[in-house]
Task: inverse folding
């Protein structure tokens, strides 16, 4: 929409709607090719989504809201006889505050990507390019750069970090959703 100075006020919004730049140098990328939130200088990606129902990760903000609801119900049980309105307000607002606070934390303060586990693999079956959970079925994700199998499997991740696992060690494969 032009103004008196003929400046398009929506030009900045359109530029912001462009796709996120893709990962470079063989780094970790999301399913749609974008750079994930929570990418560390070492090449790891901090993640949320450790709880899944089938193939669908449960939002960690939802889990925070549920934790807030539990605390609110305990507080409301204490307050309900003396301050019934405050107990109701507490029950309605605390879960929202917990959920929104956690969402802001994982998107702004300490960014983390949503991830989904897609299966397991033996350590000796890993290939370069696989995205692997580093701490069992939860935690950060690293992209495999090199695999060397001898007595144990030596895995080098993008960023230079190394891990050594027994050949039969089960490794959780994942995909980054955001």
Result:
């Amino acid at each position: 929409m032009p103004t008196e100075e003929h400046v398009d006020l929506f030009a900045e919004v359109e530029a912001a709607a462009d796709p996120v730049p893709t990962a470079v140098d063989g780094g970790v990328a999301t399913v749609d090719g974008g750079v994930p939130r929570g990418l560390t200088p070492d090449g790891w990606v901090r993640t949320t989504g450790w709880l899944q129902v089938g193939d669908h990760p449960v939002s960690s903000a939802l889990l925070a809201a549920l934790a807030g609801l539990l605390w609110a119900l305990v507080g409301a049980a204490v307050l309900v006889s003396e301050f019934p309105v405050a107990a109701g307000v507490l029950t309605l607002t605390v879960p929202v505050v917990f959920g929104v606070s956690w969402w802001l934390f994982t998107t702004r303060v300490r960014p983390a990507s949503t991830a989904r586990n897609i299966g397991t693999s033996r350590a000796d079956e890993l290939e370069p390019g696989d995205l692997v959970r580093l701490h069992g079925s939860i935690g950060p994700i690293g992209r495999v750069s090199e695999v060397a199998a001898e007595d144990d499997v030596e895995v080098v991740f993008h960023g230079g970090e190394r891990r050594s696992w027994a050949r039969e060690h089960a490794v959780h494969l994942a995909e980054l959703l955001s």
Q: What stands out?
A: The chain has two domains: 20-46+112-178, 52-109. Helices lie at 11-16, 60-79, 84-109. The beta strands are 47-48, 52-53, 56-57, 113-122, 131-135, 138-149, 152-157, 162-166, 170-176.
